[in-house]
# Entry
Amino acid sequence: MILLVDDDVMVRLLATEALVAAGFEVMEAADGEQALALFDNYAFSLVLLDVSLGGLDGFEVCRRIRENPRGGSVPVIMLTGMDDTDSIDSAYSLGATDFVTKPLNWTLLVYRVRYALRSSATLADLETSERRLAVAQRVARLGGWIWYVEEDRCERSPICLELWGDVSPSAQSVPFGLLSRVMSPERQHLREAMERAREGEPYQMSFRVQRSDGNAVTLYEQALPVRDEFGRVVRIEGVTQDVTEREQAERRMRFLAYHDSLTGLANRQMFREMLDHTIARSGRSGKRCALLYLDLDRLKRINDSFGHTLGDQILREVASRLTSSLRSADVIAREESAHEEVVARLGGDEFTVLLTELARPDDAARVAARICAELSRPLQVAHIELVVTASVGIAIFPDNGGDPETLLRHADMAMYAAKQRGRNTYEFFTEAMQLQAVERLSLEQDLARALESGQFELHYQPQVDAASGRIVSAEALLRWLHPERGMVSPVQFIPVAEETGLIGPLGEWVVLDACRHIAKWLADGVPAVPVAVNLSAHNFRSDSLLTSIAHALESTGIPPQYLHIELTESAIMQEPEEAKLTLEALKAMGLKLSIDDFGTGYSSLSTLKQYPIDLLKIDRSFVRDLPDDASSASIVEAILALARALDLGVVAEGVETAQQRDFLAGHDCGLMQGYLFSKPLPGPAFIELLYGQAPR
Ligand code: C2E
Ligand code: CA
Ligand code: CA
# Structure
């Protein structure tokens, strides 16, 4: 009968089901007290014991079972959390026979229970029947022997000899005769233990044996010296058991608990332990180590467009490139031979590398550069050639942090900075990043509440017809009125909103609010003009884009030609095919479409020709240096000429001086926008401008 102790009803239910199905009888206990009471009243052949119980914990229950006179030899299998390796060690030290990690794998559980019972049954049977003993011993691969010390002779049972493999008759009865089979360094340990046994000291140890059939096995041996009435050691009685299978299972379990199953790299748990260990050691030796934090650029998009199987293949390839780029010896100036690296996958597309005993911090940079270069080589998976790059952040111990958490956090911040700087690159952690991160976090938290607390507002910047000087349209620009910081620039908060996802509802709010304003102006008889709103790539790709715009138009009842949409080239080019459909749908709704920041992206005008675009907005950076800067002038001229050829309207952004205006007007630029005409204005101020020019 098996005693199952777990405070989780579900676990008890499922474990009992699995064990009963496998032919065992089970009795359940929900806590330690109940378990011990049952143990006193019934004879159990095995105990399955959860580590974390309310009241007495599993360790304590295990200890008390072992103290119980009947509990010395009952196998106790502990159920521990997967990541709880400390508890595995504690469990063993308290006399647990084995451990199984949670979540429980039922097949494995039954297998472990059988195994534990098989091994222990033989011990129980020792007292009962010789024949059963022999059978059981063979099953358990357990052999007995007696060493007669005075006669310097050893008697080994046939099973015992079997365990060692083919033993020559002359060696069979020689006490030290099998030592040569034992591998180093255990051979010496066993010899010493045997010598001490002769002096009366018992031993138990496991060692690896090279058998004559070529197989290596692990044997576990226990020896107990027996004295005569004068206290002299006359013989030593021992048992030897083949524990190879069990050891392999254990090793496998340990491997699973410590490795990432996809890539075979160390997992987060193992990495943490190595990091703790390395930091402790480096702290003592005064050596530096470096923590590299890697994040693959845009893996999510690859997953989204090609599926997870391909994503998994990429992760595996990345893992192998990572390990091989570290293995190449020339990268690091090694201080001594004792140099090791740990490569781990923390999960998702995040990897870490730990470099120990760093001679110079520069070495970390060399490794990071090598990793970036290795990873950015094109990669062939499933007949698709892809380029995957990584951004790497570096934190050095002890310079950038004295404990694992700080180092990890700082390496992560540095990684983030590398991403910001343009990906496929590395950055060392700096104090400034720390400040920035704190700042950003508070911005993020405030931003999360800003929309519902009504802290956003739209300002309007006129777009002026070059020929007549009249305001013919406006751009709606978002403003955040922060209760303490005052007006926060969209340059600061839009990227944060994009990353936190707030940009979704925020973008919808902008469209709706612009429509509401227009509706009010029309109702009030204001000589209203069309308003262009900016959409982020995220808004543009969102499934709800079309419905939310349609809803905004319907609910406010404004004619669609009053709404323009500004998009950047990159927002369109991220998914060119999808984009085309979306643009056509927007167009069909009656909206006008502009390409914002034109000239800064990578798309050619001829690609844009395929899209139903109405307007190009020449980026401010080209207008800024007009008319003196020759290259800006020629770019602007080229854009204007091409726009004319393709019959697209043009708006020049950021016009600040009369010279810029004159240059642009002289080259047939239809519309202009900039401080020369007006800054973006709150709604009422903007309406005043419109009234000011009222009679046409
Ligand atoms: P953008 O779309 O290129 O907007 C033009 C920016 O140039 C605005 O900055 C505007 O105030 C500024 N500007 C206008 N005339 C001049 C000038 O003569 N000289 C100079 N130096 N600057 C001028 P703002 O309002 O700070 O907006 C910055 C960016 O924030 C915008 O760039 C746009 O990308 C983003 N943004 C603003 N509102 C929204 C929004 O509602 N949604 C989204 N997704 N992004 C927005
Ligand atoms: Ca814009
Ligand atoms: Ca712009």
In short: The longest strand covers residues 216-227. Confidence is low (pLDDT under 50) at residues 329-339.
